[in-house]
Amino acid sequence: MDLVTGAVGSLASKLLQLLGEEYKLQTTGLRKQVESLSAELQSIRPFLDTVANVPWYLLDEQTKVWAREVRDKCYDVEDVFDTVLVQLEGPETADPSRLKRAMHKMGDLFAKVKARHDIANDIEDIMRQLVEVAERRNRYKIDDSIKVKPASKTIDPSCSALYTKPSQLVGINEPRDALIEMLSIGGQEKKIVSIVGSGGLGKTTLAMAVYDKLTKINGRFDCGAFVPVGPKPDIKKTLRDILIDLNKTSNMINALVDNRRLSLLGDLKELDEKQLIDSLRGHLEGKRYFIVLDDIWEKETWRFVELAFVDGKCGSRILTTTRNSEISKEIGEVYKLDELSDKNSKKLFYSITFGGEEKRPCSDNLDMVSDTIIHKCRGLPLAIVTIAGVLARKPIEEWSDVYNSIGFGPDENKVEDMKKILSFSYYDLDPHLRTCLLYLCIFLEEYSIDKRELILRWIAEGFIYEERGKAFFDVGDSYLRELMNRNLVIPTEEKSSGLLRGCRVHDMVHRLIRQLSTEENFAVVLDKDQRSSVAQDKVRRLALRTLTEETNYKDNLARVRSFNAIICFTKLIPPVCSFKVLRVLVLEYCIGMKGYPIKHIAKLLHLRYIALSHTPVRKLPKEIGNLKFLQTLLLDDTGIKELPASVRLLKQLMCLRADEKTRVPDWIGEMTSLVELEMYHELLPNFLLREAPRVQEQEMHSGADNKCSTRKFVKELGKLINLRVLKSGIKLQDQEEGRDFLASLSKLHKIQDISMLLTAYLEIDVGREPSFALSSSLRTLQLLNVHFSKLPAWMNGQRLPNLCQLKVLVSNTDEQDLRILGTLQKLRHLVLMDIKNHKLKLTICGCGGFQNLRFLHLGGSLQFVPGAMPRLEDITFSVMVSELVDANISFDFGLENLSSLQSVTVGVDCADACPREVEEAEAAIRHAVDIHSKHPSLLVKRMNEDKMGTVDAGSREFSRHMYKMLRDSTLSEQIKKLNDQIDVQNNCNSTLYSQAQEMAHSIPEGHPSIAKQIQWSSVTLLEMVALRKQLADTFQTINMQHIKLQERLFELYKVENKRMAAIVEELKAELKISDNVADAEEHGDAVA
């Protein structure tokens, strides 16, 4: 019944809006009517609050009927008033003609006068209906015994730890390690293991822990996928999801487009099952893959999907989860997941209620009631975290009342007890939070829901109530975090930054809210099996998912407020003109848009939210500016090349997303209400495109045909002062544009996330950089391809106290810069590419910096001392072998001092190093990892292996020794000495060659001989000729290049001379053998 109170609350705010100064109802009798209506609704509100606090199943049928009627009347009233607000606002025209603008204004004036007359009649009719409802209410009696106490608002401090989720991993290490052992990672045969256990036992959490552990080990698998399946799945969607996830993990796409995974569906959604299986088999052929299929319900599902998994003897692994033991036996080796032990159950329970078992108060009564509740949870993690999340917010004295109010059944009925626990947690929420939770039923269970999109939908639906001093989005964010704190939704974080990116709904919670949605007629959800969650005449929210047949709701859409269609053929989607009061329109991954009347969306004047992502719309109607209340417009991967000019009239637009195919308008700076902007002034490089290059070349755009010049775009950005999220691509031409770009960013005082990719490299001279600072609210800063000449002064912990993720390129980095970056206390992910001093090996001291850093990616080497980076889990760095050897610097990087290290990736640069030196560097790194107490994974990648020295170690060392001896001399002296050395080697070679030729002539004709090898290697000879030519060309230029050429020529002489010396020795041996043979023959003749 929380939906009723939500409807009344939303309507009350609309009435207050209508009574405001903006709509000028003060001088009319209409104001009194609106005030009377508002008073009538407020008189109903207290009774509805009482009903809302009673679980639905405890209400009698008469009360349910009455409450539904009130809710429907409130929705009807809100629809009327929304229509009035639309009429009073009136559409604007983007037509530049003065006459047309004047005529439009006159027509608008008449329309507003008519609207004021119409509303009086509507209110009169509504008041009559509400009086009738109130009279029926007086005839109904609600038993006081079903009233429940309001939930305590006291928040225990321990609840702040819930978001970090360590409690959900209690007791998981042992089963995780056992599963990894079962998977026998070292074997080459394909292996399949199935986790089996009841709902709420933590199968998905365990599978995810195994997946994360194994895929963190870089190089162990070529690709991987984690895909939820669920009951009665769409097989084609499951196969597509596997392909998309595999593609995501096998292609290292830049973090700028990480939230916009490759839109393979554009190519895959037209394929049938066989074609998808063939595509999967082709993708997996010859690869070592790790795939997790979560929550399989039917044998047929597994049998079909298994056809796609080839066994190339590459050591691939498949892990599944299921509740059905028969299915698990058919799939493969079975791992039975048991309930938590009493010890771990208590550990989990107390970690949520008190922040740890050791922190609980000493009380016999507390122990008794806690033990009783924990026993009823029967070792099910979901039940424990759910009930503990409720109890953590209540005084201990009320815990017994909570236990008694749940009404547990017999000991053997685990499923029913679980439902009661979840149901109690649901009704313990405030009404507005229940509404927000119910809304999640329109998403697929276990589906990863984007946080920003979800909150924007809540705002559009009117679920978010204004709080003084807080923006709507911040209020919505607090709602989501509260649901997470109650353990009713599962947070999904960006691993590297630790930032909250969205949430998932556990399948059992999803079933609960789907059931409640059915009972309260909240939403109709239709999937491919035509399974509907309600069968009511007045549909308010309609969601279509993977439909393959006609829906029977096409003629009952006049009151629909929210319409969602995902992966549907448009022929099965109702035309948009069927909707009258639509607020939310979602058409994502829909197929066959040709001929669909998308132009009619401009007539849906109530729209707040439009999402057309991954649906080929191609063009928006030019009248879209009429949608005065539009707050969100998502157009990524639609093929839309240009925004209509009327978009600039959308003064309430908060979020605008488009991809690189949509041109940036020159009026983008007028969109000052924007909170989130994703548009690309420049076409991204192919390797960063979010989709396969399906678009024809003529559809592409670049800076040349972009209506907004680079310089103008840079300045327009600075006008968007309400921006919190900015993702864009741009090509800056010079230093001046670079400084203007940074100056514009500094004007965005509310910005939290910046991800900017320059499509061409630009170095910014920090010494001439104007004085400015980015917002202290900044959490993510990615400036890719922007090269700072040195670390900017504003990039420190005092200026950026909330920065969690930093990706930046600095031309010169020193240890002082590292100390400054170490002051960024919340920094978890650092990518620092040092393009000029990548050969240096800097020292990271353990002086308190980088206390929260988890991920580090460097373009060079570091030396870690004890206490450095105490939480670092993943490190990537490069080693320039020859330069470290030349500088007499060891290959000891102090990795053993990184106490939390889990994964190490090293790029070994082989250029100018001999094979033995490269092997020594790799051996030193492997040894450091082997002796590490955490035994982190290791991936070593060789770079520039083709430029590794071809000579043996001795010759290379001699050459380097000579170079070291000469490096302090002047260049000309070095060149002279090298010339002398080359002459010596040349003379030596001539002597050896002449000696070999002379001895070769002494060998009897026809005798098998080494003499045929007395010639220069053609490859060596050609290289030497080329070197001599280059030396002649650079002779007048005394520089290091000339010396390097001489060194190489010297090395070739050394190698060739060594070969010739070996030939001479063999020739000597041959001549001795020949002499002995001749003597024997002569002796034989004499005997004869």
From TrEMBL:
Location of the Disease resistance R13L4/SHOC-2-like LRR domain: 560-938
Residue ranges of every copy of the Disease resistance N-terminal domain listed in the record: 7-92
Claim: Zinc is one of the keywords in the record: no
Domain Disease resistance protein winged helix residue range list: 442-513
Alphabetized UniProt keyword annotations: Coiled coil, Leucine-rich repeat, Nucleotide-binding, Plant defense, Repeat
Record-linked InterPro entries: Apaf_helical, Disease_R_plants, LRR_dom_sf, LRR_R13L4/SHOC2-like, NB-ARC, P-loop_NTPase, RX-like_CC, Rx_N
Domain NB-ARC residues, every copy: 176-354
Repeat as UniProt keyword: yes
A single GO BP: innate immune response-activating signaling pathway
A Pfam family per the record: LRR_14
Entry GO MF terms: ADP binding
Record-stated family: Belongs to the disease resistance NB-LRR family.
Name of the molecule in the record: NB-ARC domain-containing protein
Provenance organism: Setaria viridis
